[in-house]
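Justification of computing resources. Each target in the renewal requires a structure prediction run like the one illustrated here; the chain below, 462 residues long, is used simply to show the kind of job we budget for.
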Amino acid sequence: MRRSRMAKSRITMVLLALFLQAPTFAQQPKSLTDRAYKDDVLQKIANLVETKYVLAEKGKGFADGFRARCASGAYASLGDPKEFAARVTEDLIAITYDKHMNLRVLESSDIGEKPVSPLHHPVRYSRLREKENTGLTRLEMIEPGIGVLELRRFYSFDQAKDMILAAMTFLASANAIIIDVRENGGGSGDYLSSYFLPYPTQLCGLYTRQSGALMECWTRRDIGMQPRTDVPVFIVTGPRTFSAAEYFAYDMQSRKRATLVGEPTKGGAHDIDLFRIDDQFEISISTGRAVSPVTGGNWEGTGVIPDVPTAPAAAMDKALLLARKAAETYGRGKDEKLKKAVDEMQAYVDRAEKAFREGRKDDADAALDSLFRVARSAGVLTEFFIDVFAYEYQSGENEAMLLALLKKATELFPRSPEAHARLAEVSYDLGKKAQALSYAQKTLELDPENRIAAKILQKLKK
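Resulting structure tokens:
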């Protein structure tokens, strides 16, 4: 129940953040010139603020303040729905100091779906995601060892995970990462922290008025890779950084996992629900608030304050200067670790070669297992690594080492037809026909169209 409520609230927050900025085509069913109709809309808004606003002790006061604005005739002359919604929104923010409060007109997207249809929000959401490339607007290695990722919206993890995983994979070799969220208006929660904090780490939780309880939020396990818990991270923020983007910045800063550069963020630590007023209007009202397990508070109203205050025009340059220094230090440490791993691997190579020469196959296999354990820990173990390694023994001076390496590749990558095909081919060239047949057949089980294995089988039939 806690997870479903969290998901519902996050989705609602996404919908509002997305739809307020999408292209629209208005079709108004009712007229605000009807005083009774306008009064009814205003009364519904006040009642929703009183009964739904996250801080129950303040909800009634905010609602009464809004009712006083209505009674003063503040909206009497407004007949255009968009002007009316904008004025109400402005006043609600002024009364509550909550930038998530928003009255909007129900309008179809550029696809033209019916605004009152259950398909309205899903269609607009999908359409905007397509246009915005799931929020990712920049991904590059700006300099050797320094990666830059710019996100202008956080989409739900189920829709963004492939894109984010691809971006994180692209940045996997970076010695420092700059994440630009200056134009990020929010979206669906903080899952980006999961790529930089150890699992499990508790992030900002969510207190809701409806439940009266705090729902915990944790880093995710299902991110498709190991989190990079030590790479230097710099987050560039500004006054347009809002909501979910602030969650990310605050979580990373409070855990001392990133350095924030730029200006204070917009200051929206609340979570919203979207309420339908009628067939013409809907309103977002804050029904939850973030609570950090580290600080016990949040950034509502104040924004997330950068560690390195910098003017917007200079923020990226400043982040780059900091990243260069951090990348140099991090890269030096990474190189030292790799050199140590290579020295350790060389010792196991020498041990394996000696054991094969002396006919101690079990000792040689154990040495190779240890070698690949070190290679995996160092992050260099791939099929290509083993293939190039084995190539060094193709002169025939150490046939046992060559075959052992290729066999280890099939054990480490059992679903790889290429690994089995390489072993089949080398076995055939060395006259080991039974072994060649076995591995060729296994290759074709994994890849029925593998030409190398097919040719080996043809040769064995002659």
